[in-house]
């Protein structure tokens, strides 16, 4: 469905049959010589439908009620929620445009249209656990990512006795049971699995009719049945701030409580595109932060998120997502991009679900939710912000990650999985990455990454470790602590050195703190850090010490500087 050059609406050659349930728009022909509703059956060309949607979007944005009414009249007669592929696709976009007009008030529409929007509410289904598992198995849309990711994860965690999995997934841990099965069969025996999931506040399809606490209990019982020891933890967090609270908790947990021989796996399955891609500036640092989107040169939330992920020193990062671009601030461009991508799920559903089935209604309701979010919403409410593979690859490389190629076993497993589905599904390998296709069109991608700085290097370091901590401009005092000791191999030194240097070297210029510590002192600092974090009075001091207009990224760096310097100062008093 290529994007085509648009024509004026009165010149569009007839493009099939939508009836707005309950409430109809005016049936008067919108312009002289326009074909009757009976003659609209020849409006079957998807390019024509796309042109009409584009003109309707332009009319709504320019507050041209007359033209919008005319085009809506046409769309109302050629799109049907139970028609063919093109009719159902167009119907979804028609509903989204009407919702946008009603929501934004950008176009003073006719009362008939306003009434019609009341009947267009999208009713997404809340799945039981069994329903969701069956629903996901219907199509490779998610199974492709599950299969590729699990194969890469199994290779990465070989030899580790503890595996901590951070699951950024929109499918409520549906990937995990298969991974547990595979881990249980390791020749050397299964590791301890620590599973951390995101308790997102946003209701995004597919939705689960089960609390995450209940889900965790079921997963741990399943793991126990496979003789795998498993811990489950939920951390509430939101994509609107780049999962900042989650990353902060993970950072403390991993740096202070991680065990030797522990692998950290970050599994991102169709979740990262919910993070706003714009640059963000915090204008007020309170418990409920207020954000202002701007075009300043500071990093975007997605960039900061990826850099913070790297600071966790992960063993492997899996990034799976849909291969499309929904990020434009221009409604028309976004509409065209979505129209030329979202025909795919409408087309695939015809191959595995009969018309009138409940599963088909649920499936298409989720697509309509996505369309409405892309078209009708703006700001933080517009969470469907897909980026193409090429842009995510560039983001990961900019964050100093290095791509890992999927092995032949992974490719073979994905191909075997695709053989279980319709013939239209295909697989491409592009350099290190895997791409899922439908009839030759890109659908989604799977990529695997690790820290390019640490790849293939020996992690042993000297016990004498120097940190140069750049504190705020108000800091007046230098602290120098020097102790000598023979070289040792100690994981915590490596973690603190790489993470703190990486994050703190970019902080605001000011007084320097040079700290040279052996590993016993680092252990002490870690212990004090943990104790201090648990004290309410210290949390109050922490927030009070943050400059009121410091940027989000700078605040994170300042946060670390205060932690280590405060701990060292206490050490000097003992």
What's the structural blueprint in terms of helices and strands?
Layout: H1 46-61, H2 65-78, H3 85-104, H4 111-117, E1 126-127, H5 129-137, H6 140-156, E2 162-169, H7 176-184, E3 192-200, E4 207-208, H8 212-225, E5 230-237, H9 244-257, E6 262-269, E7 279-284, E8 290-294, H10 301-311, E9 316-322, H11 331-349, H12 358-376, H13 389-398, E10 401-404, H14 408-418, E11 425-430, E12 433-438, E13 441-451, E14 465-470, E15 480-482, H15 491-504, E16 512-517, H16 519-533, H17 536-544, H18 552-573
Parallel strand pairs: 1-4, 2-3, 2-6, 3-5, 6-9, 15-16
Antiparallel strand pairs: 7-8, 9-13, 10-13, 11-12, 12-13, 14-16
Helix pairs in contact: 1-2, 1-3, 1-11, 2-3, 3-4, 3-11, 3-12, 6-14, 11-12, 16-18
């Amino acid at each position: 469905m290529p994007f085509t050059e648009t024509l004026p609406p009165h010149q569009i050659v007839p493009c099939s049959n939508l009836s707005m349930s309950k409430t109809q728009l005016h049936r008067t022909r919108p312009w002289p010589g326009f074909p009757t509703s009976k003659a609209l059956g020849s409006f079957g060309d998807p390019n024509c439908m796309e042109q009409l949607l584009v003109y309707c979007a332009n009319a709504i944005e320019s507050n041209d009620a007359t033209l919008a009414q005319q085009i809506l009249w046409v769309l109302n007669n050629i799109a049907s929620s139970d028609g063919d592929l093109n009719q159902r696709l167009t119907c979804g976009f028609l509903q989204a445009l009407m919702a946008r007009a009603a929501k934004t008030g950008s176009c003073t529409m006719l009362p008939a249209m306003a009434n019609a929007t009341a009947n267009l509410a999208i009713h997404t289904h809340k799945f039981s656990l069994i329903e969701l598992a069956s629903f996901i198995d219907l199509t490779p849309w998610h199974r492709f990512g599950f299969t590729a990711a699990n194969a890469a994860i199994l290779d990465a965690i070989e030899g580790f006795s503890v595996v901590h999995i951070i699951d950024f997934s929109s499918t409520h841990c549906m990937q995990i049971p298969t991974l547990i099965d595979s881990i249980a069969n390791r020749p050397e025996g299964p590791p301890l699995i620590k599973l951390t999931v995101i308790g997102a506040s946003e209701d995004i399809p597919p939705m689960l009719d089960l609390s995450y606490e209940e889900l965790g209990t079921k997963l741990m019982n399943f793991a126990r049945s496979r003789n795998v020891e498993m811990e489950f933890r939920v951390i509430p967090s939101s994509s609107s701030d780049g999962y900042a609270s989650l990353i902060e908790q993970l950072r403390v947990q991993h740096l202070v409580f991680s065990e030797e021989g522990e692998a950290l796996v970050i599994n991102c399955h169709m979740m990262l595109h919910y993070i706003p891609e714009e640059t963000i500036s915090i204008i007020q640092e309170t418990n409920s932060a207020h954000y202002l989107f701007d075009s300043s040169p500071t990093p975007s939330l997605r960039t900061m998120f990826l850099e913070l992920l790297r600071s966790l020193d992960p063993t492997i990062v899996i990034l799976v997502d849909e291969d499309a671009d929904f990020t434009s601030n221009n409604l028309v461009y976004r509409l065209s991009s979505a129209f030329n991508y979202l025909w795919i799920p409408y087309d695939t559903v015809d191959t595995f679900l009969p018309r009138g089935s409940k599963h088909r209604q649920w499936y298409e309701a989720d697509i309509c939710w996505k369309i409405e979010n892309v078209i009708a919403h703006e700001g933080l409410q517009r969470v469907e912000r897909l980026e193409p593979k090429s842009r995510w690859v560039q983001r990961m490389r900019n964050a100093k990650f290095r791509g890992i190629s999927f092995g032949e076993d992974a490719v073979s497993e994905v191909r075997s999985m695709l053989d279980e589905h319709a013939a239209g599904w295909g697989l491409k390998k592009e350099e290190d990455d895997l791409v899922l296709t439908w009839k030759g069109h890109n659908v989604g991608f799977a990529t695997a990454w690790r820290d390019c700085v640490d790849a293939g290097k020996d992690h042993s370091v000297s016990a004498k470790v120097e940190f140069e901590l750049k504190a705020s401009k108000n800091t007046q005092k230098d602290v120098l602590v020097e102790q000598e000791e023979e070289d040792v191999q100690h994981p915590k030194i490596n973690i603190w050195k790489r993470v703190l240097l990486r994050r703190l070297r970019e902080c605001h210029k000011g007084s320097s703190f040079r700290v040279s510590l052996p590993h016993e002192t680092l252990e002490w600092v870690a212990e004090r850090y943990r104790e201090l974090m648990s004290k309410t009075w210290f949390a109050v001091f922490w927030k009070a010490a943050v400059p009121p207009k410091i940027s989000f990224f700078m605040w994170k760096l300042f946060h670390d500087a205060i932690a280590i310097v405060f701990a060292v100062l206490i050490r000097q008093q003992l």
